[in-house]
Amino acid sequence: MEINNLIKNQMTNVIQAAASREVTEAVSTSDTLSLSAQVVHFLQTAWQLLPALALGIVVIVLCYYLARPISYLLIKPIGYVSKSRLLHLVTRRFISVLVIFFGIYIFLRLAGLSEFAVAVMSGTGLVGLILGFAFRDIAENFISSMLLSVQRPFRIDDVIEVDNRLGIVKKVTARATTLVDYDGNHIQIPNATVYKNVIKNFTANPRTRGHFKIGIGYDNDIRLTQQIAIDLLKEQSAVLNDPSPQVLLEALGSATINLTIYFWVNSEQHSPIKVASQLMRETVNCFTEHGISMPDDARERIIIAANSETQETIEEATSNLSSSSGAFVKQKNKTTASAVDADIDDVSSDADEIREQAERARSPEEGDNII
Fold this sequence. Notes:
The longest helix has 73 residues, at 2-74. Helix 7 (222-235) crosses helix 8. It is rod-shaped and about 150 Å long. The protein is of the alpha+beta class. The termini are far apart. The chain is 61% helix and 14% strand. The protein has a five-stranded antiparallel beta sheet. It has a three-stranded antiparallel beta sheet with strand order 6-8-7, with helices on one face.
């Protein structure tokens, strides 16, 4: 009995081992068949998508090469509206980017990645929004440069005043406007500041009005004094007759009748400041010749008493000093009169000189003019 039981147990173990080997071989065979099926399925899917992928690649290449001519074709109507090179360049690049993105979107759709394509486009918009907030100032200056290029409130070499800064426009780039002031300094003003502030253009209308004030005594004939001043202004070559000069009463002071003299000059040819300086000198001389008094405001004068000997010594020293200095001054005036007169009577405009200095100066910022 024991021998029979032992034989049965051994046979049962052999049968179970054989059965387990058959099951393992069947599972491995099924796994191999499943992996092979997956590979075959992937290859079949790739083969089916290959024409679509090839077509998508062709679309991307075509969009890349067609972006430039399409952008040139679409911006032609803008040429009838504006001649701004900056506006044309920005619009052309924007259209080119849109055409290329359209090709990428078509490629993703043909590859069966529609959801991914939508996610890419949405992500691009989100990234653009984030970058817009991050680079807000840069974008603001860039957009302002485009608006300045389109509207053209000034041109290169114009004399303008922006943000309480007066100068000649040397360069306008995508970031800033460069002015050269009358001290020779280069001033860079952000385009957003230029666009949002008041722009005073002195070159658009070359006629500029200048003025100065002068006081005459109450014992003078006011109407006659006004006529003398107007005749003097009309004799000056730098003063324009149209609009005509004016001499108006401004106020009645404590010791003088204050007159304001207005005159017009061509700022491209003459400097209003220099002309005003020359006119003040000529007006004082003319009033003196016609006996028109120009008293000073009333002041208190204190005279210190001195003994006779001290007074004589002071007068003698003063006379000797004045005689020697007067002779020296007369001799010096004779040698330098002609040169000084030429410098004093110079009323030419400083704008041309500043423009020449701006041309010779080093550019503080690289970039092309957009105006």
